[in-house]
Amino acid sequence: MPEGKIKIKLVRSPICTPETHKRIVRSLGLRKLNQVVVRPDNPGFRGMVARVPHLLKIVESCP
Asked: What CATH number did the domain enclosing 11 receive?
C-alpha cells in the first residue's frame, strides 16, 4: 500500500520548550518559523507531530 505525504509547518518557536521538543522539531527538518516540509504520512511522523502539537500544524495531506 503506497503511503501519502503530509505537509508540516512550524508555527511557534521551540526556544522556551524542553530539549526533547527541540529535537523533535529539528528531526522533522524544521529550522525557521513558517517553514513547510513534506514528509511521508506514516505512524512515525504522525507520532512526532502529535508530541508537539502546540508548535506544529499539518497544512494538508498530499496524494
From this structure: 3.30.1390.20
6-38 burial code (b ≥16 CB/10 A, e <16): bebbbeeebeeeeeeeeebbeebebeeeeeeee
Q: Identify the band that residue 1 occupies on the pLDDT scale cut at 50, 70 and 90.
A: very low
Say if pTM beats, i.e. exceeds, 0.70.
Answer: yes
- State which residues form the domain around 56: 5-62
* pLDDT for position 5: 92
Domain count, the chain: 1
